[in-house]
Amino acid sequence: DAGVTQSPTHLIKTRGQQVTLRCSPISGHKSVSWYQQVLGQGPQFIFQYYEKEERGRGNFPDRFSARQFPNYSSELNVNALLLGDSALYLCASSLAPHAGLTYEQYFGPGTRLTVT
Amino acid sequence: AQSVTQLGSHVSVSEGALVLLRCNYSSSVPPYLFWYVQYPNQGLQLLLKYTSAATLVKGINGFEAEFKKSETSFHLTKPSAHMSDAAEYFCAVSGRVDTPLVFGKGTRLSVIA
Fold it and tell me: Nearest chain B Cα to A38, which residue?
C-alpha cells in the first residue's frame, strides 16, 4: 500500500512569494496534519484537518493556511514568504483525529522549502 | 498542555553497546507517548507508542521504551546498537482527544564501529 505522499520534494522560493505544498494521505485515512521542521529542531504542529474541516491550528501566523479536499488530500499555502519559513514541511495522515488506542500518525517524506 | 524534553542532543555509542535515549514529558492529562526515527532526508517513522496499556512497550528494530509515571519519563532503549541505527530520534506526546503531537528537539544517535 502507498504511504503518505507529498509534492514537490524540494523547491526554492524568493522572499515575498507564495507557495503551495500538497499531500495525499494513506488510503482510508481521513485526517491530515501539517508540521514544520526547522533544521535541528523537532517538528512543530501547524494544522490538522478532518473531514475537510480544520480541527486544530498551531501557533503560526495567518500567512499559513490549508485546506482539505473531498478525497482527503490537502494543501498547505504560505504567503509572503520569509527567510525563516525555510524548513522541511511534513504531512501526516491518520484514521481520525483521535482513534482511541490506535491514534497513530503516519508521516510523508516531506517537502524541503528554501526561501532565499 | 503537553511538552517533551529530550536529554542530550547527541548520543554516541559503540556498535553492540546499549542504546539509551532519554525523554521526559509534561502533560496535564494522561498522555499518549511516541518515539519516532528520522533518517537523513526522510520523513518520520514510528518506532513505538504507549497508549496506557503495558508500561513496557516493544517496537520495531529491537527498540523498547518504559513508561514511568512517577518519573514522567519514557526512555528508549536497545540492548545492542547496529550501524543502521544511526539517525535522529524524536520523542512526542499527545493528549487523548483531538490534540496534536508535541515533539522534543530530537537526539542524534551515532554508532561507532
Answer: B105
